[in-house]
Amino acid sequence: MEVTGYVFTRGTALTPGQVDAKYLTRINYAFANIQGGRMVLGADTDAQNFAQLTALRKSNPRLTVLVSVGGWLWSTNFSNMALTVESRRTFEESVMKFLTQYDLDGLDIDWEYPGLTGAGHPFRAEDGQNFTALLAELRARFNAEAKKTGHRLYLTVAMGAGDDVLAHSQMQKVQKYVDTVNLMTYDYYEAGSDPITGHHAPLYADPADPKKASSDETVRAYEKAGVPSEKILLGVPFYGRAWGEVPDKNHGLFEPGKTVAGINAQYSAIVSGMLGQGFTRYWDDAAKAPYLYNAEKHIFVSYEDPESLALKCAYVRDHKLGGVMFWEYFGDPEGTLLQAIDKGLGEAGSKF
User: Does residue 317 form part of some domain?
Assistant: First the structure.
């Protein structure tokens, strides 16, 4: 079972011991950027951070360290980069140099999203086929490099949960070239994008949910599209989503709500500043998801906790998925959720 954690430093330097890799099998360092068609460092601190993370292999020999390129805000240049054989080759050459220079174990492509605008990015109708071509060429380069060096290089992709993402991607072909498909099975509901509250990472769909959104539905959709279950990593969030001005009805679930300022919904902040402090925890047994509601302030919060994670890990085992992926490590620096994943999967991190 893979336990892949995204580490997003937001341009800051890691301190020794800040990341504990005991329960991880893979770190995806977020993010590298694309400039001039080449993969480049996202921040001046990245090089020293790579050195710290790769050093963790000494205490956990099963650990691999990948760099993730792109993300929601840095997917701007994917469409141009992937457009032609020549432009892809320029990028692929830069990837090989990057991985060698920083002693990394591979690449995670986080293009959000081929054929779609994402956060306002340029896109083309042919993005889907160019995405496939890029992955096929990277796999060939990685395999050739591994034959020369004896060092296996991993190639993974982060994929969104929407049907439109699947419609613009050739997943039956893509899956041939990647080691895992990291499903972003979260953000099904977001304040500002959705006029009502909802579970942002439910395992199953609540019959009362107008969207009928669920991680289970997304997994089944990707399997139907041709992705083998053993290559799918179920994504889980180490953060919550909050709404304000939510009426005191049904404890705020599936009720009108608006964006609320000044709310830190990282799991660590939920534990330290919300639970038992005006916020009451409720459980949706249909969705297998927890949520909070503050009746005085009319604030609703959807989040993940150890109980919901235990059920998701059981789902991963029962459905023979490849493991779990989470965004992101610093949402829970105490390690409560990561330990819940380790316990739920029964064979992660130090138990290898």
Answer: yes
For residue 164, being part of any structural domain is answered with yes
pLDDT class of 347 with cuts at 50, 70, 90: low
Distance, CA of 196 to CA of 86 (rounded, Å): 46
Rounded Cα distance, 125 and 141, in Å? 26
- Give the CA distances from residue 2 to residues 20, 66, 258, 271, 316, in Å, rounded to whole numbers and listed in that order: 16, 13, 37, 27, 11
- The 10s digit of each residue's pLDDT in 11-27 is 999 999 999 999 999 99
Predicted pLDDT of residue 24: 98
45 contacts 90 by C-beta, under 8 angstroms: no
Query: What CATH number is given to the structural domain containing 339?
Result: 3.20.20.80
- Which tokens hold the place of 189? 């509901």
Residue 77 placed within a domain: yes
Give me the number of domains the chain comprises: 1
| Among the listed residues 301, 305, 278, 306, the one whose alpha carbon sits nearest the alpha carbon of residue 291 | 301
Sign of the dihedral through C-alpha 35, 38, 44, 46: positive
Does 200 fall in a domain?
yes
Quickly count: other Cβ atoms within 10 Å of residue 139's Cβ.
16
* Alpha carbons 349 and 352: distance in angstroms, whole number: 6
| Structure tokens given for 185 | 């099975």
- Is it the case that residue 144 has pLDDT exceeding 60? yes
* pLDDT tens readout for residues 189-210: 999 999 999 999 999 999 999 9
Catalytic residues: 112
- What is d(CA 96, CA 98) in angstroms, rounded to the nearest whole number? 5
Per-residue pLDDT of 50-92, as tens digits, reads: 999 999 999 999 999 999 999 999 999 999 999 999 999 999 9
3-state secondary structure of 107: strand
Residue 22, CA atoms < 13 Å, CB-side half-sphere: 11
Query: Distance from CA of residue 248 to its chain's centroid?
Result: 32
